């Protein structure tokens, strides 16, 4: 480019591809970024004005402004007032070679990611981890930087134990639409993830020795948390309709609490039937027991719309609803939320005051902005579409390579499938062979409180990009055969 800001003959952003599933702004960002990384645009070089570039490309001026702002936030560009927008001169001393990304086959046009590959330390088939490779990290970084810049002195005082009001307001609106839960922002407590919410409820509602129904198999941390506070876990079997309420009543009718995953039973994936939901609510009403609804990944359902939450049927103020951003954003955020029935709000607030409330005002406000500006809904839709492709690809690959070893059970939703072993294999040998193949598949045994009915592997499909599916299925087949050989 010359000093007037006219595109030089040596480089042009080129015509934008309207058939590309990526927004035009993302295409522009990628092309300018690549030109800087490859040295076509050199440090200090001036870019066209937003008006000139918008005219050339046939896009809105605001689109160009947003692209420039994004690249300024990433450090690729700087604004010099009347001198225009330029490539950051400080890049002169920086080696940008490591930023050149290898091209990989696209899964689908709809699955274009902001990065590529799995997050460091996340092995293929790992469970409980979202597809971090399609999280919009650059957008998130920009929102975080914006919220940090707007932090006022008053924001540095002691926090509201309920969490940031902006986030609670966004959650109240989201839950009303997406989950059928009508609540006010002051009924919502922001917590340090699911376990933070559990800590608040167990401290507030239980006494040592109180019996509590838990699903078996079920999330192992729940039983551990109950053990920690001296409560008495009562394992209850699950089947294709979810928690067996009748069996639970037979085993322990005097339970003070039931902790369940009704939308997508963890880890087997059943949905609690309407008949059992009503039976559970009736038991709670008659006994005065509480119900804890862990709604950890209901956004990911691949047949029809997500089911309404159990909380939406609660007319007696007995259901506490727990959600988390670990599966829809990223786990290290450690951010969850708890919807508290009206009669118990003050008790839970008091507990929150005496314990450590969720920290991170900037993070909470960033999530609120992420939701308010529509990024949250778009991200969930993008994840759901990508997960459906990854799910189908893994199922097909498993049928080709592991049919002799596994019967694959495919739930209607969630982030994992279940591979039931057709014949027993030594657990320690299987674990060693999975690690040898660098796979994160997990044995069902860890999730079982009593005696397991049969052996199974929990296989997280969201951590396997489509182009890697075939190789991952082959490695799993190798692990199963080697484990069987030494069993």
Describe this structure in words.
Helices cover 38% and strands 13% of the residues. The protein has three domains: 24-100, Orthogonal Bundle (Arc Repressor Mutant, subunit A); 160-358, Type I PLP-dependent aspartate aminotransferase-like (Major domain) (Aspartate Aminotransferase, domain 2); 383-486, Alpha-Beta Complex (Aspartate Aminotransferase, domain 1), CATH 3.90.1150.10. The radius of gyration is 26 Å and the shape is globular. It has helices at residues 24-37, 50-57, 61-74, 137-149, 165-178, 193-205, 220-229, 245-251, 274-287, 345-354, 361-372, 375-401, 427-436, 469-486, and strands at 77-79, 85-87, 188-191, 211-216, 232-239, 242-243, 257-260, 290-294, 319-324, 336-339, 406-409, 416-421, 442-443, 456-460. The model is unreliable at 1-11 and 98-117 (pLDDT under 50). The chain is α/β, with parallel strands linked by helices and 487 residues long.
In short:
This protein has helices at 24-37, 50-57, 61-74, 137-149, 165-178, 193-205, 220-229, 245-251, 274-287, 345-354, 361-372, 375-401, 427-436, 469-486; strands at residues 77-79, 85-87, 188-191, 211-216, 232-239, 242-243, 257-260, 290-294, 319-324, 336-339, 406-409, 416-421, 442-443, 456-460. The protein is α/β, with parallel strands linked by helices and 487 residues long. The protein folds into three domains: 24-100, Orthogonal Bundle (Arc Repressor Mutant, subunit A); 160-358, Aspartate Aminotransferase, domain 2, CATH 3.40.640.10; 383-486, Aspartate Aminotransferase, domain 1 (Alpha-Beta Complex), CATH 3.90.1150.
């Amino acid at each position: 480019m010359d000093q007037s800001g006219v595109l030089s003959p040596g480089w042009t952003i080129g015509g934008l591809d309207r058939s590309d599933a990526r927004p035009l702004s993302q295409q522009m960002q990628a092309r300018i970024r690549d030109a800087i990384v490859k040295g076509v645009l050199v440090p200090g070089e001036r870019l066209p004005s937003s008006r000139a570039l918008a005219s050339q490309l046939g896009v809105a001026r605001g689109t160009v402004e947003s692209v420039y702002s994004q690249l300024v936030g990433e450090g690729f560009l700087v604004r010099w007032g009347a001198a225009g927008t330029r490539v950051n001169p400080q890049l002169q001393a920086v080696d940008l070679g490591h930023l050149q990304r290898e091209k990989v086959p696209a899964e689908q046009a709809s699955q274009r990611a902001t990065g590529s590959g799995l997050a460091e330390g996340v092995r293929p088939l790992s469970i409980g981890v979202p597809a971090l490779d399609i999280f919009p990290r650059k957008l998130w970084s920009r929102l975080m930087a914006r919220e940090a810049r707007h932090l006022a002195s008053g924001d540095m005082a002691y926090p509201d134990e309920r969490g940031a009001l902006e986030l609670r307001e966004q959650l109240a609106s989201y839950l009303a639409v997406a989950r059928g839960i009508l609540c006010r922002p002051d009924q919502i407590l922001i917590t340090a993830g699911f376990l933070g919410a559990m800590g608040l409820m167990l401290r507030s509602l239980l006494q040592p020795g109180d019996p509590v129904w838990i699903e078996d198999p079920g999330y192992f941390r729940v039983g551990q948390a109950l053990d920690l506070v001296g409560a008495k876990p009562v394992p209850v079997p699950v089947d294709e309709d979810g928690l067996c309420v009748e069996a639970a009543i037979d085993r322990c009718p005097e339970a003070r609490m039931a902790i369940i995953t009704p939308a997508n039973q963890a880890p087997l994936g059943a949905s609690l039937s309407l008949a059992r939901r009503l039976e559970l609510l009736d038991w709670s009403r008659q006994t005065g027991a509480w119900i804890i609804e862990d709604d950890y990944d209901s956004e990911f359902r691949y047949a029809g719309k997500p089911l309404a939450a159990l909380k939406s049927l609660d007319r007696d103020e007995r259901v506490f609803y727990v959600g988390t951003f670990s599966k829809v954003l990223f786990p290290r955020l450690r951010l969850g939320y708890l919807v508290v029935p009206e009669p118990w709000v003050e008790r839970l607030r008091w507990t929150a005051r005496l314990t450590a409330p969720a920290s991170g005002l900037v993070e909470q406000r960033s999530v609120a902005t992420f939701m308010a500006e529509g990024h949250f809904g778009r991200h969930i839709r993008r994840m759901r579409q990508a997960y459906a492709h990854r799910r189908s690809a893994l199922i097909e690959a498993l049928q080709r390579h592991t049919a002799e070893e596994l019967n694959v059970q495919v739930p209607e939703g969630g982030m994992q499938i279940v591979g039931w072993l057709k014949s027993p294999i030594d657990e320690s040998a299987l674990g060693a062979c999975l690690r040898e193949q660098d796979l994160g598949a997990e044995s069902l045994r860890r999730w079982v409180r009593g005696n397991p009915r049969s052996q199974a592997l929990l296989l997280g499909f969201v951590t396997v990009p489509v182009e890697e599916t075939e190789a991952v299925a082959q490695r799993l087949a190798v692990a199963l055969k080697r484990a069987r050989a030494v069993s």
